[in-house]
Amino acid sequence: MREKINTALKTAMKAQDKRRLSTLRLIMAAIKDREIAARGAGKDRVEEDEILQILTKMVRQREESAKTYEEAGRLDLSEQEREEIVIINDFLPRQFNEEEIQTACKNTVAELDAGGLKDMGRTMGALKEQYAGQMDFGKASQLVKGLLSE
Questions:
Q1: What is the mean pLDDT of residues 111-120?
Q2: How far apart, in whole angstroms, are the C-alpha atoms of residue 34 and residue 142?
Q3: 58, 27 in Cβ contact below 8 A?
Q4: What is the DSSP letter of 133?
Q5: Residue 5 has what pLDDT?
Q6: Range of the domain at 106
Q7: Domain end: 56, 71, 89, which one?
Q8: Three-class SS of residue 112?
Q9: Are 19 and 65 found together in one domain?
Q10: Count of domains forming the chain
Q11: Predicted confidence (pLDDT) per residue in 39-68, tens digit
Q12: What pLDDT score does 39 carry?
């Protein structure tokens, strides 16, 4: 993942694609920040799943910002945020749609034989391990909660 981002950074530099270049630099800075924090905890490197978490968080932040800008009538800034989302999504696995999230949640609950809200943490842990970077875990959490409270 790191190599893919570095290659894209070099390509953007050569093409003088300013938007892509600045977004890729933001990604690299976020990864570097996480590595610095991890060193304090005794870890050497940031793993792939952590990079996926960083990218997912960046997309979520930009979606919220774009929405805020639209509500404030700043369509130019909203468009800029949406362009960054597209660039970041290039490095994320394909995101699950609503139906796929429901199916994954139902299957995981069945596999774990989860029987109540006490199994919520275990179920969400399994989903995050199996589908890192592929779904919105906020939506998944609501679905799992609904399934376990039935």
A1: 85
A2: 28
A3: yes
A4: T
A5: 92
A6: 98-148
A7: 89
A8: helix
A9: yes
A10: 2
A11: 877 777 888 888 888 998 999 899 999 999
A12: 84
The predicted structure's pLDDT at residue 65: 96
Mean pLDDT across the chain, nearest whole number? 89
Residue where one domain finishes, among candidates 65, 89, 113: 89
The CATH number that applies at residue 123 is 1.10.10.410
Rounded CA separation 22/133 (Å): 22
Q: What are phi and psi of 33, to 5 degrees?
A: -60, -45
108 C-beta neighbours (distance < 10 Å), count: 22
- Is residue 6 predicted with pLDDT exceeding 80? yes
Two tokens at 57?
A: 């968080």
Checking if the pLDDT of 116 tops 90, the result is: no
Give the residue carrying structure tokens 């805020």: 68
Q: How much is the pLDDT for 22?
A: 95
| Strand stretches in the chain, DSSP E | none
Q: Please write down the long-range contacts of 92-99, taking CB distance under 8 Å and 24 or more positions apart.
A: 92/52, 92/55, 92/56, 92/59, 92/133, 93/52, 93/133, 93/134, 94/134, 95/134, 95/135, 95/136, 96/131, 96/134, 96/135, 96/136, 98/139
